Amino acid sequence: MAFSSPVAKLDVDNGIAVLTLDSPPVNALSAPVRTAIHDGVKAAIDDPAVQAIVLICDGRTFIAGADITGFGKAPEGPTLQAAQNMMENSPKPVVAAIHGTALGGGLETALACHYRVAVPSAKCGLPEVKLGLLPGAGGTQRLPRIVGVQRALEMMTSGEHVPAKQCLEMGLVDELVEEGKLREGAVAFARKLLAEKRPLKKVRDLDDKMIEARKHPEIFAEFRKANARKFRGFMAPEHNIRCIEAAVNQPFDEGLKTERALFTELMNSVQSAAQRYVFFAERQVWKIPDVPADTPVVPVKKVGIIGAGTMGGGIAMNFANVGIPVTLVETRQEALDRGLSVVRNNYENTARRGRLTVEQVEQRMRLLSGSLDLNALADCDMIIEAVFENMEVKKELFANLDKIVKQGAVLATNTSALDINEIATATSRPQDVIGMHFFSPANVMRLLEVVRGEKTSATMIATAMGIGKKIGKIAALSGVCPGFIGNRILRARTLQAQAMLMEGAMPWDIDKVIYDFGLPMGPFAMSDLAGLDLGWFRERSTSSTIREVLCEADRRGQKTGAGFYDYDEKRNAKPSPVTEKIIRDFMAKQGATPRQISETEILERCIYPMINEGAKILEEGIAIRPSDIDIVWINGYGWPVYRGGPMFYADTVGLDKVVAKLKEYAPKLGADFTISPLLEKMAAEGKRFQDMK
Ligand code: 3HC
Q1: Any residues with Cβ below 6 Å from ligand 1, and which?
Q2: What is the pTM of this model?
Q3: Ligand 1 centre and the CA of 114: distance in Å?
Q4: Which atom of ligand 1 is nearest to the CA of 103?
Q5: Domains in the chain and their CATH numbers?
Q6: How many helices (H) and strands (E) does the chain have?
Q7: For residue 417, what pLDDT is reported?
Q8: In angstroms, what is the span from residue 460 Cα to ligand 1's centroid?
Q9: What is the full DSSP assignment across 665-683?
């Protein structure tokens, strides 16, 4: 058989040709891989000794999709469609043998085979939507034909990876074969096909599920309505839905044309560029130049958490979820009991929604123990302090921990603002002190800011990042500065939002702009949720800010039914005439005259100072790279992923425009505002953050 390839081998096993792809790390469909499929299958078809063909992969996974790194480059070699046609039109049965994950173009390749077998641990999915795309190699037309419209809608708009057993149930996979024996199983399956003279099943020709769907055109409108909130702002889900509609209403080849047109539209969109950027940013964020991958870590088998409030309890759940025992320490039994019962409630709510069994709830609760004595933490491998934000309290606590906790343990603080270097001075082991800043609710939010102090060792950084990964967080490394990466940038926005209140904008005007931009809520709705009285004391309150006046009027946020907004019993927010009057009176007292502020100004005044702060964070070396800042804002604050994060967004606006606008607004931005020299320099040189190395 005339076939050779740098990424594949072809051998014949008693009449069954086995084409094995081997292109690490994930057998993505690069030009050599597409060529290998096309030419390998052709060689097998041309060989009279071959009766059936198996397509299988070496390494960790079946084809995990198109080569994302190749997007935007000039196409080379045969198209994926040409390779698929070679398989689908083969006069000999072609069987895809799946392990790991068959994703995107990988699943589309398998769908162009006549049959599919998989090991039980395999998963299949069309995750293109997560990259702001749709399956562009026939997947939108083939998937609904095989699994039906409802399931295709769900799979393609969520990008979920579906376990092999479910794939079998819905017909996507024809047979499961024994784990670890994929090749033998696939070859045996091919022999069975031949023995039983099974037809060459082409998914493109299946029509029964389409006939069924044509009777229920309302399914699309219902699906759109049910998911409107989830899809808000994103282009790709709607484009995916339109392709499935085409699958129902158009002949296969017409449907392919619709798919191509909509795919091209998405591929050229800023949204997809942003989402692809985020895909790589999420993988970059783990890489720390001076902490190599082989840095030794502390094995974390037992965790101690100090403070069983909302934060401490939420943090504890992360560890219990992955089977790590936690000791929670409080100063009062009542606080401890309350903390543990909140955790139990959270788990029981999850169980009620069917996402945990009662037994799992109990298993997790058994991993949590409480104590009123710090000495209970002596043998923990990692301590996370989550008490209230007071430097003296924290220093005293760390001094005590230093005496109690075994040497070599990680001493972490969950502070969101305080100087970790100063906290570390309270111990004799500053190299072991680190920040692990969780975001509220800590059991839900994906972000973990790992904060390295001046003296924090590489081992502690590697351990904190590693445990972050283990508990399912995305961890971003920050240096020490007030607010670290996330809250420091938030502050830049808050200052402008507050300033605009004093110029005439109402909280809901500002919030609307931020919400429409794609964040889950604006700054004032966020303050109401957090509580306006955080750090407010009635006896010291002097009506010197709007917030103070609101608190004095007992408008302390959602919990009191009123804050910047008025809330009904279901906590729906309504603009408040009371707040409006408070703001107007406050302005009058200060002699300020309200003016009309445009939505454009609101947006630019909120966002551009954030970009400026991000640039300062980079020039000070607080963040390693711009994309880490974007990861923080996407995962900690709900920045819309389709806008790529504040730094990526700045690139799409143009850094020169950002700088020009900041200069124009400078007189309003506050006495302390300065433009970042790095931002100014990059703008002058026509550079982009995403090209920064
Ligand atoms: N193209 C290029 N590189 C890819 C890739 C792809 N499709 N998928 C993964 N990689 C790279 C990663 O960047 C990473 O590189 P690095 O080691 O240099 O950082 C390496 O492969 C390993 O990836 P992970 O760290 O993510 O490894 P995991 O084992 O955790 O996960 C995976 C493996 C589940 C396959 C995960 O990488 C993944 O989800 N990949 C993307 C899958 C995807 O989106 N496919 C659809 C692509 S679009 C498409 O197919 C269009 C088509 O319809 C025409």
Answers
A1: 25-26, 28, 61, 64-69, 101, 103-105, 108, 127-128, 131, 133, 135-137, 139, 283
A2: 0.95
A3: 25
A4: 45
A5: 8-267 (3.90.226.10), 303-483 (3.40.50.720), 504-590 (1.10.1040.10), 599-691 (1.10.1040.50)
A6: 29, 19
A7: 86
A8: 29
A9: HGGGS-TT----HHHHHHH
